[in-house]
Amino acid sequence: MIKNDLTLDYLKTFWSVATHGGMHRAAEERNMTQPAVTRQMAILSREVGTRLFERFGRGVRLTAAGEALLKETDQILRAVDEGLTRVRDVAGADRHRLSLGSSHYVASHGLAAPVRTFRARFPDVQIDFECGSSELIARQVREGRLDLGVATLPSRSEGLRRIPLWRDTFEAALFSEDSLAQGDTVSLGDLSERALVLPPSTSTTRALIERALRRQRISPKRVIELATLEDIAAGVAMWLGVSILPRRLLAGLSPRFPEIAARPIRRFGESRELGILIRKGRVLRPSEGALIDLLREDLGAAKEE
Fold it and tell me: Can you name the CATH fold of 168-271?
């Protein structure tokens, strides 16, 4: 029998470790120390009676038992969230709360202004904010844990309504003293001769970069994975390698990283769409509709530089 002191907190930590594939990222998301996360997972495994994770590269992946527990955890956490929503609806409190999720990229490139405007117009609405990968935000919107998400739109739209905001095109990010930065353009072949600093293999952006490489039958000599696009830009500024980043991001990074040179990539042929995510079938509250209007006004394609 599972002990009574094995609370929902353990399941939330388990869900975070499973989602991120590692203890370190889960500790950051849960605002815990890594040893505390490891200890919770050891206790949970002991109580379940079997291993939930196994080592995989620098992180962990789920065992068959872990996959089964993840499905149960999704149902449990969704039931708790939906139950609390129903209680708030009865009490009238939910009208004054809005849970918003955003990718790291969107959060640091334009989200602040429309949210500030919203808060000025709706001072009684409390915003609960979550920041993470686009894949995580889409999943939480789909499962009802977030009211709205702003992120890279997933290729699979099951359970999601998508409102496009803008389309990102990509350029090469180079250290200004790199010989490749001396030309007007670069090729994927040129970039693949350097260390390529890229987002995690599970990300939508990584998928489109790899699709462009496959189309030209190019295999990079070396790949360095970093968690966020901002981390990747910092890696380029350190001259760890070169990268392929959104043009909009590179334009905004110029004051922080003047040593990064952006160059068009010949025949790259890939782009990604960013926008608002809402769970299908969900009836929007007036405050949510107002925030969507502000996001479309401030972040829509007409605002792209």
Answer: D-Maltodextrin-Binding Protein; domain 2 (3.40.190)
